[in-house]
Amino acid sequence: MASSYRAHALASLAVAAALAAPGIASAQSNITLYGIVDTGIEYVSHASVNGAVLRMPGVTGEFPSRWGLRGTEDLGGGLAAIFQLESGFNLRGGDLGQGARLFGRQAFVGVKGPYGTLSLGRQYTMTYYALLGSDILGPDIYGMGSFDAYVPNARTDNSITYQVGWQGLSFGAGYSFGRDAAGTGNSPGQGTCAGQVPGQSVQCRDWSVMLKYDANNFGVAASYEEQRGGTNAAANFFDGQPTSAFASRGDKDTRTTLGAYYKYGALKVGGGWLGRRVSTSAINTHSNLFYLGAAYSITPAWLVDGEVYRIVNSDHDTRGTMTTLRATYSLSVRTAVYAQAAYLFNSARAAYSVSGGGGGTTPPAGEGQAGVMLGMRHTF
């Protein structure tokens, strides 16, 4: 017992001496706990052949609910260690999001310095960052995710990312060795694609690049992302048509974005284009998604915003148009209430759903669909 105690004491002294040695200092660190809780009551018409639904949606409102930890440690010489752990959850049932992952939204560690930021783990792709400025409504329940459910879920496992900025110009690149390590699916309806298989280095690979410029009152951005197929993967265009097999490493699913925004006083206008192409040995399908939105701060407490979306998939003969209008009133710096409404027009063969609130609201083909939601959001 005594020898064990002496060994422990000697080890403690050794650690203390090492920390006191030249070149090894106790660096200053900072850790922040943060989060968003957001939900409400939603009405969706023609939610199935049985009619409308009145519900508390399983996912999101204005913003997906989450909690997280982010931290930095000053390493000296302009360098800092960084990390972020972010968990998504659903208020309706208190369950975890992103396939029940503990930190399904983000989980990475990295180094930040004068020449950019390098990080490793589960992270957003460059598609997500490129859309931040021009997509006015963002990951709203009646936003771009109603036409392409991947957009608000644009993140990958096993990834390395690098981002750097200089005088408003930003560049980013990401590479994933296998975009779905947990096997729970990163995007609804598209299966899983674990990757990192010996001898199959291309299977389930994802890479993306982004270039953007932000000035005081305007900005432009462009991005490109390519996903490769793999075991258990599928390609879904979310238009009511059957999913396509996406099991070969030679299969490609690409998204290209181009967007811009402009600010004038309390007004912000943004818009752009997202083009998607799925190429396999059996199909070559392409869609174009256009969006245009605006936000106006009537007072410091009142914000009104809205967006119009139009998607065209000529290969499936499916088209959809959705208009969303939203009003948000801030009760305090951290708490807000909101009301929003949207209507989605489907072409004869299309069955896009107006709501991105957790599924279960796909209308019959060709049926228009309305969505209305009253909600509350709190940040901490």
Describe this structure in words.
The structure is a single chain. The protein has helices at residues 2-20, 126-131; strands at residues 29-48, 51-55, 66-76, 79-90, 95-96, 106-113, 116-124, 155-166, 169-176, 206-214, 218-228, 234-235, 244-245, 252-264, 267-279, 284-297, 302-313, 318-330, 335-346, 369-379. The protein has 380 residues and is mainly beta. The protein has one domain (28-379): Beta Barrel (Porin), CATH 2.40.160.10. The chain has a 16-stranded antiparallel β-barrel with strand order 1-3-4-6-7-8-9-10-11-14-15-16-17-18-19-20. The chain has a two-stranded antiparallel sheet with strand order 12-13. A hairpin with a 4-residue loop joins β17 and β18 (318-330). It is globular, with a radius of gyration of 23 Å.
In short:
This protein has 380 residues and is mostly beta strands.
